[in-house]
Amino acid sequence: MVSFSDVSKSISAIAEIAKRIKNYELTEQISDLRGLLMDLLDENTQLRSELEKAQLNNDFAHKAVFKDGMYWLKGDSTPFCQRCWEVDHNIVHLEPAGYGTYYCPEELYQRKIHRK
């Protein structure tokens, strides 16, 4: 796979040649190319982040067990919010509120869920 660093080095080398031969139009085009490369890098970063979130959500969807109004993962003693997952596909740990109840820190109100 070609890295950003490799492409950037190639563009820099071409820019140096353009400066040496005093081709200002080529230098301007190279500057535009650098801007496009930065845009592609930003888009790539965003797409990688979205892919990572989708993979995490897919993993959660296949491993989570719904029990007592909450989602649970094997080996995790803290449940996850039902509403956040089912409505927004966000994986949010619930916070203990005491006496076997939990609340979701992402919600504007404290929606308590009781364990059986």
Describe the fold and architecture.
This protein has about 120 residues and is an alpha+beta fold. Helices cover about 55% and strands about 15% of the residues. The protein contains 3 helices and 5 strands. Strands 3-4-5 form a 3-stranded antiparallel sheet, with no helix packed on it. A two-stranded antiparallel ribbon has the order 1-2. Helix 1 packs antiparallel against helix 2. The radius of gyration is 25 Å and the shape is rod-shaped. The mean pLDDT is about 85.
Key descriptive features of the protein:
116 residues, alpha+beta, 3-stranded antiparallel beta sheet, two-stranded antiparallel sheet, 3 helices, 5 strands
